[in-house]
Design a protein that fits this description.
The complex is a heterodimer of chains A (308) and B (310). Chain A is an all-alpha fold and 308 residues long. Chain A is built from 13 helices and two strands, in the order H-H-E-E-H-H-H-H-H-H-H-H-H-H-H. Chain A has a two-stranded antiparallel ribbon. In chain A, a hairpin with a 2-residue loop joins strand 1 and strand 2. The N terminus of chain B is likely disordered. Classes of the chains: A mainly alpha (308), B mainly alpha (310).
Chain lengths: 308, 310
């Protein structure tokens, strides 16, 4: 802003009515400039592909010719056993892995929040460490440790007399291995979020409850958990979406096998899109993912609103 | 989507504030009959035990990475397992280099992550500032769209972006890896939240002093937001360092691979070099580990993506 600008403004101020408009416009324009790079990038690399993907989900390509097929690709989704299987696998993660990890994270955070605890920051760092690993790298490490013949984990359980487990080639054990790996990677991450939530609970609440003679369990279930609700909701939803969109871990650990026991929707999308190059069907799978994610978000929204 | 949690007042993410002991204590027996310290010690023992087991479980894969990358592959599956680092580090490193040109791969990963972080952070900071501190036509729409963007899984974009890059002739290029994701809805949102609290009066007085808008932004606003920017930078760096599916689709030449893509290739070999693979994983983890140990607080704030600030 130059001196003449200032003079203009004072003139505008003198003329009364015009001032707010002139000032308003002056303040407006830079805002657009600041946001412009982001808006342009989003238009090119987000809005356009999104529309393109929606359009392609309504088309099919055969022998190099792409034609409009209406909802045929979506009808295909319902008849495709692999869609069913990948959703079922994601469902297993939702029903077993997410609650298991959440329970562990809440428990550990609760222990770490004890006022008398020593070495707290040490424990916290150690538990958080897995969250620092690169997804592909930790999956590789687990894959090597889970090897059937002489793998580190089979040798460790061998010490207590358990026979070697064929972790990655048996449908059930492959799922167990995947669940264990993801739980290892993400528990500390969620624990830290929950711990922050615990520390935000006002001390008076505990004192009041104690004065009323509440026991440890009552305090935990009647005060801690309800107070943690928004944090638990957040971590729960993030983990749910993470399970739905899982790719790196199962791609590296099992490649989706054995017999598609660890196939997830995104891995299936990858295979359909970039191994079979069936872009139309891959786009339909993508929009199924959008719908499911939106559904989860909607449920979260409803639960949050119910509370307030 | 994270509104309920993100709305908390900002402070350090997880260090228990000094002078404010954790509110929770199971030590509610001030009048224990005898030897209160001993009794307490016994009662606390299980807690330490649980935390110790948890710590060990967290550590084992790290320790195994270190041990495995310093031994021969045959030793990794032999009985008994090696429990201490061995002397094969240099041999493994040489093989890793020969198999995947890993030095080059590391440079690629670092370069891409740094470039992506610089571009994406600048775009996020600018857009966040524009959306927080200015009123302009369409601002509400842009804000709403950014929130929607955060809700839409990026996998939807894979097919059309792949086609776009193919028609641009950008497949197997570095710009194809980073450019599509430079505008990060999440980063913009994070920056907007942190600029919202910045006092308008400071911006206004800089204007009156004759500073232009970009100078005001650069000299007055940014320095104040340094902690949040640190968190953003770490988050952004980590996003690109971890990125797998998109670089996997874009990069075809081994000399252009990033670390995750190179590790994936090693798994696909008919004779897997397990020691080399473990060494590669260790090297891939090291930069993040170092970042974490130095910038613990910002690292966690960045990783949690500002989900919890209080």
């Amino acid at each position: 802003m130059t001196v003449s600008d200032v003079r203009l403004r004072s003139q505008a101020a003198a003329s009364g009515r015009r001032r707010p408009r002139a000032l308003g416009r002056r303040i407006q324009r830079p805002g657009v400039y600041f946001a412009l790079p982001a808006i342009v990038l989003f238009a090119i690399f987000f809005a356009y592909p999104l529309v393109s993907s929606l359009w392609q989900s309504l088309t099919a390509t055969s022998a190099g010719v792409t034609r409009f097929v209406g909802l045929d690709q979506y009808v295909r989704l319902f008849a495709d056993p692999l869609i069913g299987k990948s959703l079922f696998n994601a469902g297993i993660l939702l029903v077993i892995q997410v609650p298991l990890m959440m329970a562990l994270a809440v428990g550990l955070a609760y222990l770490l929040n004890q006022s008398w605890l020593r070495f707290r920051s040490g424990f916290r760092v150690l538990h958080f460490l897995p969250a620092v690993t690169t997804l592909v790298a930790y999956s590789v490490v687990f894959r090597v440790m889970l090897a059937t013949d002489g793998g580190a984990i089979n040798q460790m359980i061998g010490l207590v007399g358990i026979a070697p487990v064929d972790w990655l080639n048996n449908e059930t054990w492959a799922r167990v291995a995947l669940i264990a790996s993801i739980t290892w990677r993400w528990t500390g991450y969620n624990m830290v979020i929950i711990l922050a939530g615990l520390q935000a609970i006002p001390a008076e609440l505990y004192e009041a409850a104690r004065m009323d003679g509440a026991g440890r369990w009552t305090i935990f279930s009647k005060i801690v958990i309800p107070q943690l609700r928004p944090v638990l909701l957040f971590t729960g939803i993030t983990s749910t979406i993470g399970a739905l969109q899982l790719f790196d871990e199962n791609f590296i650990l099992t490649g989706g096998g054995p017999s598609d026991a660890t196939l997830t929707p995104v891995l299936y999308l990858y295979k359909v899109g970039f191994r079979q190059f069936d872009f139309g069907y891959a786009s339909a799978i993508a929009w199924l993912l959008v719908a499911l994610t939106a559904l989860i978000a909607f449920v979260q929204f409803r639960i949050t609103r119910e509370k307030s | 989507m994270t509104d309920t949690v993100a709305a908390r007042p900002a402070s350090t993410p997880l260090s228990p504030q000094p002078g404010r002991p954790s509110a929770l204590s199971t030590d509610d027996a001030p009048n224990a009959p005898w030897g209160p310290r001993l009794l307490r010690g016994i009662r606390h023992l299980p807690v330490y035990l649980v935390l110790a087991v948890g710590s060990i479980v967290s550590l084992i894969p790290f320790l195994w990475m270190i041990i495995a990358s310093t031994h021969r592959t045959s030793e990794l599956f032999g009985t008994p397992l090696p429990l201490l680092p061995g002397g094969e580090l240099m041999e493994n490193l040489a093989r890793l280099q020969a198999e995947t040109n890993f030095g080059r791969v590391m440079v690629n990963s670092l370069g891409l992550a740094v470039a992506y972080t610089v571009f994406s952070s600048i775009v996020s900071m600018m857009a966040g500032y524009g959306l927080a501190k200015f009123r302009f036509r369409g601002r509400g729409v842009v804000l709403g769209l950014i929130l929607v963007t955060m809700m839409i899984p990026m996998q939807v974009l894979l097919v059309p972006l792949f086609q776009m890059m193919a028609s641009l002739g950008w497949i197997d290029s570095y710009q194809a890896v980073i450019l599509p994701f430079v505008a990060s809805a999440f980063g913009i949102f994070l920056m907007r939240q942190s600029f919202l609290d910045f006092p308008d009066s400071l911006i206004e007085s800089a204007r009156i002093d004759g500073a232009n808008e970009f100078r005001t932004f650069y000299r007055i606003v940014l320095p104040v937001a340094r902690p949040q920017i640190a968190a953003l930078v770490i988050y952004t760096f980590m996003t690109q360092w971890n990125a797998f599916i998109w670089p996997l689709l874009m990069l075809n030449t081994e000399d252009k691979y990033t670390v995750p893509v190179a590790l994936n290739t090693m798994i696909g070999l008919s004779r897997i070099d397990y020691s080399g693979l473990m060494l590669g994983s260790l090297i891939a983890t090291l930069p993040l580990l170092v970042l974490f140990l130095i910038f613990q607080r910002q690292f966690i704030a960045g990783l949690l993506g500002g989900a919890v600030k209080g």
